[in-house]
Amino acid sequence: MSVHSERLRRNLVVGGSTGVLLVLLFLYPTSRNHVSAPPATAVTPGIVSTSPGTGDVTVNGKAEDTQYGPVQVRITVRGKRLVTVTAVVYPSSAGRDREISSFALPQLQQEAIAAQSARIDTVSGATFTSEGYRRSLQSALDAAHFRTVG
User: Fold this and answer.
1) What is the pLDDT of residues 46-62, one digit of tens each?
2) CATH fold of 46-143, please?
């Protein structure tokens, strides 16, 4: 193989690799704003059901908009105790949104049950989801006329 053809082959490899990298760079999303996917369908806020036998009251909080999509929770109160908190709407349109929600929502749920209020810590890496969760949780607690003790 001649020196000229060796250089040509190397230049083609380098040039082709550079071209591929440039294409990937231009295709990489530069904005993390949640605008491309339609928002998840929120459920109607307010009391969903009551169970006279157990005293359970199930309430949907308001859907709270965040930078990455809406967050909405449903709670169940039994007597004077918050017994369940479930996120019914949360950011999930992109892979990273689903990843963040999958680790943040269980932590937020656990903290809400432990705190018996919406006074919960922000999950690191999920600031916007945490804030939307807190606001929706507070609106559900308010609709259930739930008052924390202390």
Assistant:
1) 888 888 888 899 999 99
2) Sufe protein. Chain: A (3.90.1010)
Q: Give the C-alpha separation, 18 to 23, whole Å.
A: 9
Q: Where are the domains of the chain?
A: 1-30, 46-143
pLDDT digits (tens, 9 = 90+) for 67-98: 999 999 999 999 889 999 999 999 998 899 99
Q: In Å, how far are 29, 76, 78, 146 from 82, measured between CA atoms? A: 40, 6, 6, 8
